Amino acid sequence: MLIIPVDRKPDWRRPPLVTILLVLVNLLIYFGIQWGERSHMEPAAEYYLAESRLPEFEFLAYARFLENQNKPEAGAAMRKGLERWRQIRARSELAAARDGKKTSLEDYQSLIERWYVLDADGKFGALMQQPKPPLLGTVDDDELALWKEQREHYLSIRSRSFTERYSLIPAQAGERPFTLLTHMFLHASVEHVLGNMVFLAMVGYAVEILLGGGWYLLFYLLSGLLSAGFYLLFEGDSMVLSLGASGAISGVMGMYTVLYGLRKIRFFYWFLFYFDFFKAPALIMLPIWVGKEAFDLLFGQPSNTNYYAHIGGLLGGALLALIYRLLARGKLAQAHASYVSTGDDDKLLRGLQQSAYAALARLDFERARRDFSSLVSKTLAQQKTPQPDWLLQLFNLSKGTPSAPAFHKSAQMLLSLPKGRFDEQKIHQVYLDYVASAEPRPLLSDEQSLAVARRFAMNGQPQTAAAILQILLVTARQHQQLPQLIQFIARGFMTAGRHDQAQHYQKLLQQQFPLSEESRWISSPGNRY
Asked: What's the pLDDT tens digit per position in 382-426?
C-alpha cells in the first residue's frame, strides 16, 4: 500500500532550493560515481563461488568465527551454506563433464548473500591475513598453499568500491562512524534512487517552506542519523550493507505530519489494483505510516527494505518537528500563513465573506467583526490588498474599541488606498471619524499624515488638509515636502473659490519656506492668486 501527500504544487516564486539541492546531490553521486560500479562485484563473486575452492575453506572458518562470537545461529547458517555450495559445485562439475557447460555465477545465486556477509566482515578478514589462520582448522601444506594462492588472486580481483567504503555496515559503525552520514547519499539501483528522489521532491518542498532552508537541511541530516541509530539499536551486529536516503526521507515525512498537524491534507493512495484520493489531518498519517512499516517488518515477505530505518526516520523526524513546533511557534504560524493553497484560501475567503455579511444582516456585530478581521488578515497573508468594503466594515465595527489594533490598522489601510480604488468622500469621513475617536491618539506617521493631507487638498477637502498641516508644522517642521503640501492646499482653496484662504497659504509658504522652489515659483509674476 502506498500513501503520499499531494496537497499542492511548489510555489516557484519561492523555490525549495535545499530540496532541489538534495535531489541533485543524490542523483549526481549515483549516476556520476556509483553507476560505473554496478558490475564491480560480479567478477569477484564469480571467481570466489564458481571458480575457486575458497568457500570450502572460508565458509567453515567463518562459521567458527561466528560461533566464537556467540552467534550459533549465524554459524549454523554458514555451515549449511557450505553444504549447499558443495552440492552446487558437484552438480556443476558433472554438467560440465557431460555437456561441456561452463560453471557460472548464476548457479550460485542462493549463496551470494552469504558470500557478501563473509566478505564484508572486516574483523574476519583481518584474522584471515595471518600466515596460517587458526580458523582454517587442520589443513595440510598443499591445501594451505592452494588457499593462499586463490585468496591472493581473489583479493587482486576484489577491490573495495566507493559504494562499499561509504555504505553503513552496522557491526563496523564504531570503526567507520562517517558512514552513518554518507550512507544516506548512496543507492543500490536506478529504481532505488529515482523512487527515493520522487518521494523527497513530493514531500520535501512542503516541509522546507515551513522550516526554512537551514533548519530543513539540519533536520534532514539529523533524521538520517536518528534513522541509522534506530537500525543499529536492533541490528547492531549485522554485517549486511545498508545504504539509501529512505531513512532521512522517512524523517521528512515524519516532520510533515507534525508540522502540518491537524490541517487537512489531500493524499493519494494505491492498494493492489485500486487507487484514489482522500483528505485527512496530516498528523493522522504518522501512526498509519509507522504501523505500515512495523507490519511489513513483522509479517511481510523477506525484503531488502530496511524497515527499522524507516520507522526510526519517521519517529525521529516527528520528534524534531515537535521540538521546533514548541520552540518556534510564532515563526511556524507565520510560515503557515504565508504558504497556503490558493484554491483552499479562495474557498475559505468566500465562506468568511458570506458569514460576515450574514452576521451584519442579523445584527450580530461581534461575529461580523471577527469575520471581517479574518478576511483582512488572511488576504494580507497572501500579500494581497483586502477589498475596501471589508476594511470599511471592520473600521466601523471596531469603533466601539477605539484602542484596538484592528481599528487603527483598518483606518491606516483605508487612508492608504490608491486614488480611484474607493469613494474619496468615504475616505475623508474615515479620517474625520478616526482622529475624533482613536485612543490614545491617531497612529499615523508623519509620512502617512503628509500623504493624506495632499490627497485631501487635491480632492476638494483643503480645510482638512490645512488642519493636518498645522500638526505637521510642529511634528515635521523640516520635512522637505511641506512646501509642496502648502502649495497644494493653496490651490485647493483657490479651486473651491476661497481666494482669501488661498492667498493666506501662499503668504504662509513664503514666510515659512522662503528658499523653497515652490516659494520662488509663486513669487514669479502671474503665479499669485
From this structure: 777 888 998 999 999 999 999 999 999 999 999 998 888 888 899
Strand partners, 281: 264
Q: Give the Cα separation of 168 and 198 in Å (integer).
A: 23
Three cell numbers written together for 104? 557460472
Other residues' Cβ atoms within 10 Å of the Cβ of residue 416: 16
pTM of this prediction exceeds 0.85: no
Q: Cell numbers 499615523 correspond to what residue?
A: 444
Running DSSP on this structure, what letter comes out for residue 175? T
Run of H or E residues at 275: strand 274-281
200 in Cβ contact with 23 (< 8 Å): yes
User: What's the pLDDT tens digit per position in 354-382?
Assistant: 888 898 888 899 999 998 998 888 888 77
Burial pattern 84-98, b for ≥16 Cβ within 10 A else e, equals bbeebbeebeeeeee
Grid cell in block for residue 250:
522517512
> How far is Cα 341 from Cα 349, in angstroms, rounded to an integer?
12
Distances (CA, A) of 15 to 55, 338, 417: 54, 14, 31
Residue 440: is the preceding peptide bond cis (ω within 30°)? yes
**Which residue is it, cell 493512495?**
269
CA dist., res. 405 & res. 183, Å (int): 53
Distance of CA 109 to the CA centre of its chain: 41
d(CA 522, CA 528): 6
